[in-house]
Specification:
Shape: globular
Helix content: 25-40%
Order of helices and strands: HEEHHHEHEHEHHEHEEEEHEEEH
Largest sheet: 9 strands, mixed
Distance between the termini: 54 Å
Structural class: alpha/beta
Strand content: 15-25%
Number of strands: 13
Strand order of the largest sheet: 4-3-5-6-13-12-11-8-9
Radius of gyration: 23 Å
């Protein structure tokens, strides 16, 4: 009405409301006499719109994934994103520690091509840490020493342009260099340290499991089932695990960003059984009813058991494919419940780390 009145006050009197949003799953058109002249299901219209993309996907990508995405559009309305939380994102559990002005140092670790360090630093900074930009060249040259830090976060991006098996090339830089290997091994052995690996950093840390206590059954991460880079907003659930980052978040399901080409967890049945037995599965992809899913694109890479993240047996090291650092503020979400204030539920992950080193 404000817009119509504004037009009218400037002499434009031919502005009318021609439609509104309704909660039906049909799109309808009516004439000036309010007689319906056209009706079609939104699903049917969306499927028609998507047919060209589907045809291209079927040739270019994995045809089974292309079919799964088309079917999800055509065969009924999806209920969409949701948030189900076992805690309030508006409660800052790190506030008492932030007020002390004591800011533990965390190494924001990156390698050539990595691009997620700014968001990661911002999230840790907001949680009360002193974030330091540490490039692998600093470790290799001796300019930086991990013994000076309480935590490290291996960031997402495309180390070495993703041409050396994603994070595997990054991991080999550490494993095959005596100084770096010793630094990382000593850091992981420390009982007062914590580590987070996201996306490319997840792949990298998974390849360091030989020097990470309690990481024997971790998977490696390989090419997505879709055979394509996946950049989506998906749903993940948080089962009960010892991860220090996910404490008191179990039972929650939250939207999160994924952005990877090699995110499918590859592991043996025995390793998966061990992860379940040790409760070290940290995140799982779920459908819009909250059930663990293999269905593409709700599971964007085809990981078995919806595997999206794991942690070490003692919970001090957590690796995950999704990007919580890209959605730690409500404003970073394309959809969010009105009840969220400044922080999204993912901010709790970083706050938990701050409380842990209190």
């Amino acid at each position: 009405q404000y817009v119509i009145d504004l037009y009218a006050s400037n002499g434009v009197n031919h502005v009318s409301v021609i439609g509104d949003v309704n909660r039906d799953i049909d799109f309808t058109l009516s004439n000036h006499k309010d007689a319906e002249v056209y009706r079609a299901s939104l699903n049917a219209l969306h499927a028609i719109w998507h047919e060209t993309s589907f045809a291209i996907q079927s040739i270019r990508d994995n045809p089974a994934c292309a079919q799964a995405e088309y079917d999800s559009i055509a065969n009924g309305r999806d209920s969409g994103l949701f948030a189900e939380l076992s805690y309030s994102p508006n409660d800052n559990i790190a506030a008492p520690y932030i007020m002390t002005d004591v800011r533990p140092k965390v190494a924001i670790l990156r390698e050539q091509g990595v691009n997620g360090q700014y968001e990661m630093a911002a999230a840790f900074d907001r949680a009360g840490f002193e974030a330091h930009d540490i490039h692998m060249s600093d470790i290799l040259s001796g300019a930086a020493d991990l013994s000076d830090y309480k935590g490290l976060a291996a960031c997402g991006g495309f180390s070495y342009g993703d041409v050396l098996g994603a994070g595997e090339g990054w991991a080999k830089t550490i494993l095959f260099n005596t100084r770096a290997n010793d630094q990382f091994a000593n850091f992981f052995q420390r009982l007062d340290s914590f580590s987070l690996g996201v996306c490319n950093g997840c792949q990298m840390l998974s390849n360091l499991k030989s020097i990470i206590p309690g990481a024997d059954h971790w998977p490696r991460f390989v090419k997505n089932d879709s055979e394509q880079f996946e950049a989506r907003l998906v749903m993940v659930a948080m089962p009960s695990s010892p991860s220090l980052f996910l404490q008191d978040m179990a039972g929650s399901s939250v939207p999160v960003v994924v952005s990877h080409g090699e995110g499918r967890a590859e592991l043996t049945d025995e390793a998966l059984t061990a992860l379940k037995a040790n409760s070290t599965i940290a995140l799982q992809y779920v459908d819009h009813q909250g059930q663990v899913t293999q269905r593409y694109p709700l599971n964007p890479n085809g990981s078995p058991h919806g595997l999206a993240g794991v942690c070490s047996d003692d919970g001090r090291v957590t690796i995950m494919m999704p990007h919580p650092e890209r959605v730690f503020r409500k404003a970073q979400h394309s959809w969010a419940p009105e009840s969220w204030e400044e922080d999204s539920p993912w901010m709790r992950l970083f706050q938990n780390a701050r409380v842990n080193v209190a």
